[in-house]
Amino acid sequence: MGDEARGLSEDVVDVLVVGAGFGGMYALHKLRGLGFSVRVLERGHGVGGTWYWNRYPGARCDIESLEYSYSFSAELQQDWEWTQRYPTQPEMRAYAEHVADRFDLCPHITFGVAVTTAAYDEDGGCWRVGTDAGDLITARFLVLATGVLSAASVPQFPGQERFRGRIVHTGSWPEDTEVDGLRVGVVGTGSSGIQVVPHLAERAGHLSVFQRTANYSISAANQPLAPAYLRDVKARYPELREQARRSFTGSTVPINRQSALAVDEEERNRRFEERWALGGFAFLGSFDDVTRDPEANRLAARFVEDKIRAAVDDPATAELLVPAGHPIGSRRICVDTGYHATFNLPHVRLVDVRRAPITGLTEAGLRTADGEEHPLHLLVLATGFDAMTGSFVRIDVRGRGGVTLREKWADGARTYLGLQTAGFPNLFTLTGPGSPAVLCNMFLALEQHVDWVADLLVEMRERGARTVEPTVDAEQDWSGQVARAAERTLYPQADSWYVGANVPGKPRVFLPYAGGVGKYRRICEQVVADGYRAFVFDADLTVV
């Protein structure tokens, strides 16, 4: 998919969408179908968002393909053929390109353009948006579909300018990256690190994995999708999708409503084994209280820790790979294929940088605090993202009175429902902080947000309203609800990206809503039923 012609200096649209990932693509399709003029700006050169950029070896979805996909088109659901339970990045990207072609989206998307500024014009009641190409676009509504796991967190090491090798980040993997026979280092053992390590080990001459924090990871149990299973799911798609929308996690995988403490050890281990064999996030649904009760959580963690020890030959390495200091699931649990067994290979080494932190880079490699230099040709940064807020505040977004979004969120992101923030009229943050977002199936969350925003814009059109934004009181109340929902779980006990702990200086605030997808959806529906309670409409009929 090539670049669109850029001549946007005079562009005026009803809705400007930033980002052509799965949220931005659906927003374009939905809003265009409702009669709004829509333009999408995308910094990449193709659709797919996260699945366009994350091309590292082994990149794979950790939610099942038959659920991690659009539900808005019955025909699309029936026609597209997923090949595996957990799709690879190339398959996800192919799906994105198919959707773009099928619904004729690309003529409305400008590729290779990054949005740099967005300022609200109070007199005109519109947004003035600037790009790195010098374009200026005027839009009545601004939808930030920038992705909540898209703003890479890239550490800067002392001496980095002297390193003669290559440095790449998993979140923007160059296609020409050489690995074969090289000495490779990986910094970071979160989801992307755990996925990339086994694949790098297959090709590298030597692989060093620099681990600060071991993470819990569940076997994916990935497999090709059997034709009979595909037919069954497609025949039941309407009921399965509705079940997911009303569930706690946004998935059709059931949660066992028993307490882990209410059964004996034999029954408990039987349940754990069943979920382990099933693979993936389903393990956390072994019992109802695994993510809430410390003792139930400890029993689940111990089961996974024993699986790690059984997979790793060297006892000392195994103990380093056993997570410590946080409950299982309080950091985003990882889903892997052969990760722990990779450390049985003779050319793979685990380096404990909690004991001996990284002190910097040299010409030839990476140095740790114990004085050891680790020779490297390629350094892979699997260091994750400035999650939930980074992609929003990296744009210079200015609302009423010129206040920036970064300034407003300096002490912690505040939104109403994760959709809007007071003082920024007609600005929408898809799956923003304060929504279930990263705690659920992102496709389900994106579709719900786009549908909700679309209904609101139609309501404004019917009312003759110019602007909409939430009240400060509603925003503060919602922030309290988000915090209380988190406090009922074990999530806040971990120094995770859920609370911004991976970004130096970021305020520690639990960002997603942990009260469940179904409850969140009901709250959003009730807001509408109450006449858009807590939203302020400006009935001035002035148009852009």
The N- and C-terminal alpha carbons lie at a distance of 32 Å
- Poorly predicted sequence stretches spanning 5 or more consecutive residues: 1-9, 540-544
**How many DSSP H or I helices?**
15
- CATH class of the largest domain equals Alpha Beta
CATH architecture title of the largest domain:
3-Layer(bba) Sandwich
| Major sheet description | 8 strands, mixed
Average pLDDT works out at 95
Going by CATH, what is the homologous superfamily of the largest domain?
Answer: FAD/NAD(P)-binding domain
| Fraction of residues in H or I helices | 25-40%
Q: Tell me the number of strands.
A: 20
The radius of gyration computed from the alpha-carbon positions, rounded to a whole number of angstroms, is 23 Å
How does this model look, in words?
This protein has 544 residues and is α/β, with parallel strands linked by helices. It folds into two domains: 12-152 and 387-538, FAD/NAD(P)-binding domain, CATH 3.50.50; 160-381, no CATH class. Helices cover 30% and strands 17% of the residues. The chain contains 15 helices and 20 strands. The strands form five sheets. Strands 1, 2, 3, 4, 5, 6, 17 and 18 form an eight-stranded mixed sheet that branches. The chain is globular and about 70 Å long.
